[in-house]
Amino acid sequence: MARLHLVRHGETTSNVMRRLDTALPGADLTDFGVRQGVRFALEHQPEEPVVLVSSAARRARQTAEMISSVWGVQPDVADGIHEVQVGELEDRTDDDAHGVFKDIVDRWHRGELEARIPGGESLAMVYQRYLPVIDDLAGRHLIGDNQRDVYVVSHGAAIRLIAARLAGVDPTFAASTHLKNTGSIELEYVDGLWVCRRWGAETGPFGTTVDEPLVTDPMG
Q: Cα–Cα distance between 172 and 209 in angstroms, integer?
C-alpha cells in the first residue's frame, strides 16, 4: 500500500543560529543540510515511481532538489504546506521568544486550536491551509488504481501537528518526540482512515510517553 512520507527539510543557517525563521522564502540549507538531503535520497531509494512535493520555502525546495538529483523525479511545489508562522517572533533567537512559541505549541497539542502566536497563526489556521493539500495528494495518488508513495518535504512543527491530527497520534507522544532534519513520518490511508506507521526512528503504535505534552524543540 502506498504511503505518505512527511519529510522535514535539511539543516539551515537559521537552525544553527536557533533563529525563528518561518516567513517565506526563508533561509538556505547549510552545506551539511545539502548533504542530509542527498543522504535521505540514498537511504530511501524508491523501487517504484513516486511523487515528490515541497513547500514554497527555500529550504524545503532545496532539500527536494537534492532528493530529486538522486531519484530523477521532478519535484513540485505546493502552497499551504509551509511552516507555522510565528508573526512577531520572526527572526528572534532569544529564550523569551522560544518560550512563547513553545507555550503556544504545547497548548495546540493539548487541543487549543484557537490559541494564536502574537501576530502569527493559530493551529486552526495551519489546518485550514495545510490539510486540503494532503487531501488532494491522497485523492490523486494514495487511493484507487495507480497508487504511488508521496514524499512531502515540509517543516518540523507543522509536520508533527499535521501527522498527529491525521492519524490521531497521542498528543504527548507527538509533542515530546523530536523530528530531526530530514527525519520523516510515514502514514498510510487505510479504509478511509490515516494510520501512522513510523515517526522518525519510532514505529507504531504510539502510546503516551509522558504525563503531559512536553515540547522541547517546537521547530522539530
A: 6
